[in-house]
UniProtKB/TrEMBL annotation:
The keyword Ribosomal protein is assigned to this record: no
InterPro entries: AB_hydrolase_1 (IPR000073), AB_hydrolase_fold (IPR029058)
Protein name in UniProt: Predicted hydrolase or acyltransferase
Enzyme Commission numbers on file: 3.-.-.-
Transmembrane parts of this sequence: none
Organism: Cupriavidus necator (strain ATCC 17699 / DSM 428 / KCTC 22496 / NCIMB 10442 / H16 / Stanier 337) (Ralstonia eutropha)
Leading EC class: hydrolase
Domain AB hydrolase-1: 32-251
């Protein structure tokens, strides 16, 4: 499916955001917004958003954040700050939702957010910051604190980018692959980022939450989703065996089954 571009205000300028609607004809069904990982994009999701929406009979929106995919690239001299995920959740996403008429009382209604890795963290920040604007969230391998395991694995990804064909493989999904990679990698390995911590925000979550973690995740431990449950007791936990950092690829079927049940449990019988 062809992507579209929309302009939004961000950081005192106008930027382009790549997006795709999925099954827009199902206008009365829940809308699921997919938030990609730290090296993701619209195309990096592959078929999962479409298959997920078909499984639950949902509408979907997939988009590439600033610096990723076909969205406006990050200038190479621009360094992300430790609050980069907060800015995406509190500034860029509301601007995008305004531009696409998403939200309470708007054409597309209140969304469900399904976020992976950094996208899961952004979903948590957005839902805690705008509790009346989100129907619920599903977070796959989210980060709420920076663990030593995460830093070691991200340092290993840096070496792979420099020494293997990882750069070439990622380049298929980004207009400026170096913009996407170094923006993410540099801030995660910045010593200042070690103090990043979402736990003070989590008690602000009011919506239903499904938090998913693979037992073999090389970027985070079960402490991440258990921490969400500690601060937001309405959270349902899903721990998946034989699953690494990408539950939607490693355990797609059990994830889809649980996530569809989760959404449907909190959704009225819309046709």
């Amino acid at each position: 499916m062809q992507s579209s571009l929309v302009e939004i205000p961000f950081d005192n300028r106008r930027i382009r955001i790549e997006y795709q609607w999925l099954r827009p004809e199902r206008a009365r069904r829940p809308l699921v917004v997919f938030l990609h990982e730290g090296l993701g994009s619209v195309s990096m999701w592959r078929d999962f958003p479409r298959e997920f929406c078909e499984a639950g009979d949902y509408r979907g929106l997939v988009f590439s954040r600033y610096g990723y995919g076909r969205s406006t690239p990050r200038p190479h001299e621009e360094k992300w700050r430790p609050d980069f995920m907060h800015r995406q959740a509190r500034e860029a996403m509301p601007a995008l939702f305004d531009a696409l008429d998403i939200g309470p009382g708007r054409a597309h209604g209140m969304p469900w957010l399904l976020g992976h890795s950094d996208g899961g963290s952004i979903a948590l920040i957005h839902a805690a910051s705008f509790p009346q604007a989100v129907a619920g969230i599903i977070v796959l391998a989210p980060h709420i604190v920076v663990e030593d395991l995460s830093v070691r694995s991200i340092a290993g990804t840096r070496q792979a980018y420099l020494e293997t064909d990882l750069r070439q493989r990622l380049a298929r999904h980004h207009d400026d692959v170096d913009s996407a990679f170094w923006g993410w990698n540099d801030i995660w390995l910045d010593p200042e980022f070690r103090q990043w911590d979402l736990r003070p925000l989590l008690s602000g979550l009011r919506c239903p939450v499904l938090a998913v973690q693979g037992e073999d995740d090389e970027y985070g431990t079960m402490a991440q989703i258990e921490g969400i449950h500690r601060y937001a007791p309405q959270t349902t936990l899903l721990k998946l065996a034989r699953c690494g950092h990408s539950p939607h690829r490693d355990q797609k079927d059990p994830l889809t089954l649980a996530a569809v049940r989760h959404i449907n449990a909190y959704t009225s019988n819309l046709k």
